[in-house]
Amino acid sequence: MKALILFLVILISTPFSAQELTDTTFIKARTLTEKKNYLEAIALIEKLHSQFPDDQDISFFLAQLYFWNNDAEKAKSKVLVVYHLEPTNEDALRLLVQTEIALGQFENALIHASMGNEHFQENKNFYHLQKAIIYEKMDLPDQALTEINDIEPTTEEYKAAQYLRTQILRKQKNLISAGYLLTFFSSEDSQPAHLLHIEYLRKFNRYSQAIRLNYGDMFQVKALQLETDAYLKTSSSTYAYFNYGISEKNSIFPFIRLGGELYWEGKTWSTSAGARYLYFDQNNAPLLLTGHLAVRQQDWTFNYRPFVVFQQQEVLSSHIFYLRRSFETKESHLQLDLQYGTMPYYFFTSDVLTRINAYRLGVNGKFRYKDNWFFQPIAMYEWEEFLPDTYRHRLSLQFILSRRF
Fold first, then answer.
1. How far is 71 from 100, CA to CA, in rounded Å?
2. Is 76 strand, coil or helix?
3. Rounded to an integer, what distance in angstroms lies between the CA atom of residue 397 and that of residue 277?
4. Of 366, 368, 334, nearest in space to 162 by CA
5. pLDDT, tens digit, for every residue of 203-230?
6. Could you give the CA distance from residue 66 to residue 46 in angstroms, rounded to a whole number?
7. How far apart are CA 336 and CA 183, in angstroms?
8. Where are the beta strands (DSSP E) in 248-298?
9. What are the distances in angstroms from CA 386 to CA 43, 160, 287, 389, 401?
10. How far apart are CA 170 and CA 372, in angstroms?
11. What is the pLDDT of residue 19?
């Protein structure tokens, strides 16, 4: 009789002991996971899995741990077993799709994402997003954008989808722009200045090239200038900028314009150092040294750029600041500009570099319309001392329209 009672006690208590062991181990593993100690958590759950190999919750949690530890191959091997045993387990299907994307198995991932979209309509936005990610990685942007368009704005996937849309659109190779700058002066003897430009930019893998034609009408002189800009990616964190321009002699533009700058990019900062050279003639060839330091905090950027101008044995300087609020997924921004010094908002004659002093306050923005149109309105007010103790107002208004394709 005693033996029978002992047997019944063991029979009843064993499941409770197993459940207690499982719960305790899960709690420890989840605590380690929150601290991102994935390897220690994996060791705990692997040991538990060896004791209870048929427990699907343990198998699935182990698959998750491997995936979070960037071991997609082991994660897939674990979750695939769970999914085959329980095809209605949507969590397993979701993880399976994500592991196949991580492994570059895009055809399989697309099949499973389509199955999820068909069988789990209540979570269709998740599968639309996964299919968009797959198509983007397969270099099928049109199909990716179609999937993104099907994602509802009220869902948690929408923000990630819009970010992905922007990344896809930015891969387009061509940009054409046209702009007009109008500058007013308060002095009675100064007529408004006009500058028009058209520009074409082409992107390559690590290199971009822009060609720009400028037309200027200032100080009763009209002229054309042809410029080219080049951007070369030299490493993952650096790129170089080069500029070359040419115009006719004795015009409002420099006969030769040269520029170069090297940029360093960090996660929360960027800096650069460079120079500009404007050659009008032998007696008039100002050299400008410049650079910048920018600090980024989430969607905000603070930027400082100095200019030191060497011209006709004079040394002039300017200090330019801006504060920018970016809207990354919309490729847009709003910016406040401040400046103290001699440099005007837009310079294309040597005369405007000789101001005694000036202050500038301005605003500008960039906005995307639909997917590939951009417009940039700019307004700059300057209070300038252009002769000793003689001041005037300068107002510059500019509008730039661009189309990407």
1. 11
2. helix
3. 26
4. 368
5. 998 999 999 999 999 888 899 999 999 9
6. 11
7. 19
8. 256-265, 269-279, 287-297
9. 75, 51, 20, 8, 32
10. 9
11. 63
